[in-house]
Amino acid sequence: MSAQPQAVPNGTKQTLTLGKALNAGLRRALEADPKVLLAGEDIGRLGGVFRITEGLQKDFGEDRVIDSPLAESGIVGTAVGLALRGYRPVVEMQFDGFVFPAFDQITTQVAKMHFRSGGRIPMPMVIRIPYGGGIGSIEHHSESPETYFAHTPGLKVVTCSTPHDAYWMIQQAIASDDPVVFLEPKRRYHERGEVDETTAPIALHQAQVVRHGSDVTLLAYGPMVKTCLEAAAVGADEGRFIEVVDLRSLSPIDMVTVSASVRRTKRAIVVHEAHRTLGLGAELAARLHEDLFYVMESPVLRVTGYDTPYPPSRIEEDYLPNLDRILDAVDESMSR
Amino acid sequence: MSAQPQAVPNGTKQTLTLGKALNAGLRRALEADPKVLLAGEDIGRLGGVFRITEGLQKDFGEDRVIDSPLAESGIVGTAVGLALRGYRPVVEMQFDGFVFPAFDQITTQVAKMHFRSGGRIPMPMVIRIPYGGGIGSIEHHSESPETYFAHTPGLKVVTCSTPHDAYWMIQQAIASDDPVVFLEPKRRYHERGEVDETTAPIALHQAQVVRHGSDVTLLAYGPMVKTCLEAAAVGADEGRFIEVVDLRSLSPIDMVTVSASVRRTKRAIVVHEAHRTLGLGAELAARLHEDLFYVMESPVLRVTGYDTPYPPSRIEEDYLPNLDRILDAVDESMSR
Amino acid sequence: MTNLIGHPDHGSFERDPQDMVQLLTPEGERVEHPDFAWCGDDDLAKQLLRDMVLARRFDVEGTNLQRHGELGVWPPALGQEAAQVGAAHAMRAGDHVFPTYREHVVCLLRGVTPADMLGIWRGTTQSAWDTVSTNTHMYTLVIGAQTLHATGYAMGLQLDGMVGNDDPERNAGVLAFHGDGASSQGDVNESYVFAASYHAPVVFFCQNNQWAISEPITRQTTIPLYQRAMGFGFPGVRVDGNDVLAVHAVTSWAMERARQGQGPAFIEAFTYRMGAHTTADDPTKYRLAEETEHWRLKDPIERLRAHLLRSGKIDDAWLAELDDEAEQFGAEVRAACHALPVPKFSEIFATVHAESTAELEAQREQYQTWADSFESIGADSHGAANGQGVSP
Amino acid sequence: MTNLIGHPDHGSFERDPQDMVQLLTPEGERVEHPDFAWCGDDDLAKQLLRDMVLARRFDVEGTNLQRHGELGVWPPALGQEAAQVGAAHAMRAGDHVFPTYREHVVCLLRGVTPADMLGIWRGTTQSAWDTVSTNTHMYTLVIGAQTLHATGYAMGLQLDGMVGNDDPERNAGVLAFHGDGASSQGDVNESYVFAASYHAPVVFFCQNNQWAISEPITRQTTIPLYQRAMGFGFPGVRVDGNDVLAVHAVTSWAMERARQGQGPAFIEAFTYRMGAHTTADDPTKYRLAEETEHWRLKDPIERLRAHLLRSGKIDDAWLAELDDEAEQFGAEVRAACHALPVPKFSEIFATVHAESTAELEAQREQYQTWADSFESIGADSHGAANGQGVSP
Ligand SMILES: Cc1ncc(C[n+]2csc(CCOP(=O)(O)OP(=O)(O)O)c2C)c(N)n1
Ligand SMILES: Cc1ncc(C[n+]2csc(CCOP(=O)(O)OP(=O)(O)O)c2C)c(N)n1
Ligand SMILES: [Mg+2]
Ligand SMILES: [Mg+2]
Fold it and tell me: Which residues have C-beta atoms less than 6 Å from ligand 1?
């Protein structure tokens, strides 16, 4: 494990967008360790199509912020080689739908290198993927591919829902000696929030209760945390005390935090944009029932994307979990 | 939908190995429809590394049983083009671990073509994959990649556990106008069983109760069906009445048959070789609890491969679900 | 800091390559080439000009519609009209085309309607046009994936006996477009391997517009792209992509070879993306205005107009008529865009598969119940979509 | 039935190509080449012969061990000894090698132990050797994947300032092996793109042994493979892969170019897989004995032995000593194989990640409890593994 990102005693508490917080986190990681490298399509001069790497090539040079040829397998595959040589590559997949050409390198090489080498070879790589829908985009630009990664042993998978987490978690992911798929909720890039540099962050793979409640637990991550918090606020008006847990880490899942919450509320609803079948909701339901079958008062419900490809953008709002669907599920959970 | 394979009134009832049954099924499909094509690495003159296509190039020619260059994405991608031109390509991935270079074509192209085209363009393709472990093989040769496909809308995923099913299901998959990932349990290629040509098969996506019992339901598929039947037999000696359901179809899942069984036994255990986290067991557990929470007497348990990469073959037996682990789970389920 | 990783020049490494087929200079002068002759007549030349002008108009409309929030995003083809019009005119009805997301003009000329194309960018469909009657495949947004489809389709033509027949009318071929950036993708290179191995009747048409979003061609290759084909065993030709006559001549040659069973060929159309990558892009971040200016002088429409005017094939009246036609076409495009129906969400469940499933039917019902509950209480908060899009 | 899809000849399309570097004929005659000279001395020549003989012995042992059920499968390198030994000797300790699953000899010469290599085929490990001290990466079974790793590693050397220094001792390069079949994979072609784009110090060494399992080279390419490199912008050289001197000369040249910062190069070693693809394969199903006989006359060991005997550099006594050495090495290999420890299953959980997880720890405990329950009742039914393997 490389040095963990540290709190800056005289640091700032700044309000930043989630995108800018990522940019600041990447900047700190580049400063902290000369072995950290960024690579990807259009991340250099352009600063990435979402401008997450804006200004970094200018400040750190073309040898540390590297524009790649247009080939995702090549980007990840060469990053493996760089990692073997002692670098800590942070690669960007331009959109969620374009990670699949790299899928072979990710599953058969990146994920397995430490295991195959009998623990000799670490694979400290971060694969950044802007993911999820809700931005009115064309096909392949709104996917939620987390299951593919969370089902693959050897990978770790995290996602952030606030600028503060974005800032710290990207640094923690880069400091990790394990390969981390870092999912960035692209529809939240422009959400603003306070980034506090002055206190050390919680552990990367820890979940967090982001709203307390006693009636039911909403389990969410990434873009859906905000939606769940909004639902909880509306629910409160209707007399529902809804707890919201931000998973933050999808692999491993922090079952201690999750179970503790559900043990209290006795009811759980998982909310994600990914397709329902074999989405994270399936795993959470399986684990919660296995652990708390006799404690829970109703089965884990799932409010998710449907088992269809992501639809054309004019109708995407009906695909995405929203307040109404979440509150309906709360009603259903409570009425069972 | 192209013509469904028909029972042969004066056909045979023959004992065949599962591998030979697949070969016979492919032969019938090639005979039945001139648009059916086979493509893959080494499937022609060699007949495939498992000899599943043995003799077919000799009998149907090099234009219908096509040796491909060594590139899985190319094999699937050109098959897309052949399907667009009206062919029904059946492609072979040489091993489970080598489907990943084709993953982009499968997820972004094959799975979505019908949807993207607004229902205009069917994608009748079968992707045959020998899968699973237990044959003493080297790395990447024992994977169980079903989750990756079953989570992908647009694909159908099936697997056979007997020669009879192998013979019929491969024909049904080829007759389907939807893309079907056809998982072949390679450790069962040499198992023998009766193939009955004289009676029409059950529907491709239907599950089947393959042993009746009242205490608990084992939900399994592919290579694990035999293991579960053996466990059930041993369990019977110990006074356990174990029902075994062969899922056959992993996407869609025949929840009617599954739920009916569990409604009766009130207990369920899912058994698969794939990694536990986000394996099919997760989805079955989520659905069963959602449907039968107040009926079931204990939570769905999972007996699965671990969340590690597949281990070196000398220790693979400890990775794979076996009689002991299944019967332990039966005990646990019954004692809760 | 070391500085050893090869860094591309920013900008195209060649601006005026010698080794390219040209039949009409930027100044509108007709020149001859030893290997390629243009065999069209005056009517065709005028037709090419007309199509390029309408093509550009389509592009202007697309960009404007996006600015007005009617489209989520629009990828302009500005500057690439000659490459598209020349290539499309080299096709026969029975040939099959695999476009990228930028071949609007090719698609129009194949009979795809503006409405069909605009649906993608408006977010009402995903290229759901009639690919059979137009013999033109849908747009593919996953860079390079379509080149393998094209190769497979070409193999299908072979199997159908539609290649190398004595009667040329019975032959057909495939044209596969891809960009300069796409040339780096594994899939694209695999398609070269398969095409060569099966001797398939497919022509790869690489639109080298010098840029892949912000990355110059020099990041993808250090030698001229057309030479890539040599390494795979089939001919590669570089053509002035802003010269519609040369593009037409070279593509006609390559397609005819393919139809006759002489196997694949590769065309590098040397051109320039005059506009942004898409309306979401800002090229001032990564390229110099000076470069764009250099290319403006090579405008594909200007040179043909100059040539035809100078040689008296057209006059101002003809051009005025064309302007009117473009005006009217523009109005049609706008009308088509506004008339695009928003699909019902409930319909998507049935199009996932050819044969649907109980699970999807259940999800459709679940959705429908939920949606109906809104209608009954008169709420309209759901189903609203903004027209804003972010997608390069 | 139409028959239009291009079908390869079955068998290599060229048996005695003219355009390849040769310094030692099959008859053992030293010849000169205008571009490549062999700069070794007699000692090195003898060393090369010795290494080839030991290499072949390793192979014989591997095949026998598999026959006796000690290995699940074994991929013989029979016939490819010169390509491996020649290439390995062109490497410096500081260079890094990325082998395929067939480069046993290269790995041995890099200091990987026989035990380390046999573990993979016995099923006790997955190439877990010390890649840092040997400067040799693990075997990669996913065809072609390692070529990208090699390119990335070479980029790392550039960043580390280990390329193009005035002091040649400070320079290093990378050698990436792949097969003829692998040349069709997207990853391999992408590695050419990246290597060219970054001007990385990597040499691609393609073992063209004419076959990819049952598929002849003509299924992968219709032109000589070394020409592939031209299309990507770096030099490609074909060398007689059964001529250890030529392989050594050409690889030395390419590696030195790379170290000096002149970028990537491609070597096609024209050789032949004399044995089965692996012990699970049966080549009589797909190729003619006559072809194998043709190649037997080009045996890499025979020709060097003949040359050195004829020129008096070695004699029968020397050869007898070498035989003894091989005999002893064979015994060592067998002993190493038998001594390979079977890992404890419980240990695998901790090697999944550098930093493990609670879930894996729980699974380990679950496993351990279960395993212990057996030991306590003395059962031994679990954990038994058969040595039989099916895997090409
Ligand atoms: C597999 C994949 N990776 C990344 C992208 C994002 N992307 C869209 S267009 C583009 C550049 C394409 O460049 P080029 O092939 O030259 O075509 P052009 O846009 O210039 O017509 C990129 C990187 C994508 N669509 N697909
Ligand atoms: C991605 C992938 N696809 C398929 C295979 C199965 N396979 C193993 S070796 C081989 C042939 C390789 O041929 P070549 O590259 O010529 O190397 P050689 O075996 O001749 O040394 C194949 C198809 C694999 N290992 N990886
Ligand atoms: Mg371009
Ligand atoms: Mg080979």
Answer: A 41, 70, 72, 94, 98, 101; C 100, 102, 141-143, 179-182, 207, 209, 211-213, 273, 277, 392
pLDDT tens digits for range D157-178: 999 999 999 999 999 999 999 9
Asked if residue A179 lies in contact with residue A125, where contact means CB atoms within 8 angstroms, the answer is yes
Lookup result for tokens 């005390």: A241
Backbone φ, ψ for residue A44 (5° rounding)? -85, -100
- The one-letter code for the residue type at D173 is G
Rounded distance from Cα A312 to ligand 4 centre (Å): 45
C352 and C325 in a common domain? no
Rounded to two decimals, what is the model's pTM? 0.97
Instruction: Quick: pLDDT tens for A1-45.
Output: 577 899 988 889 999 999 999 999 999 999 999 999 999 999 999
Q: Which of C370, C366, C342 is nearest to A276 (CA)?
A: C366
D367:B277 CB<8 A: no
Rounded CA-CA distance D364/D358 in Å is 10
Domain boundary among A141, A170, A196: A196
Indicate the number of domains in chain D. Answer: 2
Does A5 reside within a domain? no
C376 touches chain A (CB under 8 A): no
| Cβ–Cβ < 8 Å for D313, D98 | no
Q: How far is CA D326 from the centre of its chain?
A: 20
Helices C244-259 and C300-310, packing angle to 10 deg: 100
Strands of D202-208's sheet in order across: D96-98, D174-179, D202-208, D265-270, D236-240
User: What length does chain A have?
Assistant: 336
Give pLDDT tens digits for A222-247: 999 999 999 999 999 999 999 999 99
Query: Which residue is closest in CA terms to ligand 1's atom 3?
Result: A98
For residue D240, count CB atoms less than 10 angstroms from its CB and return exposed for 0-12, middle for 13-18, buried for 19 or more: buried
Please give the residue of chain A at the shortest CA–CA distance from D191: A74
Please name which of A251, A244, A245, A262 lies closest in space to residue A204, comparing C-alpha atoms. Answer: A251
- Same-domain pairing of A60 and A186: yes
**Is D150 part of a structural domain of the chain?**
yes
Q: Which of B157, B176, B196 is the last residue of a domain?
A: B196
Helix (H) or strand (E) holding C181: none
Q: Give the number of residues written for chain C.
A: 392
DSSP string, A105-135: IIIIIITTHHHHTTT------EEEEEE---S
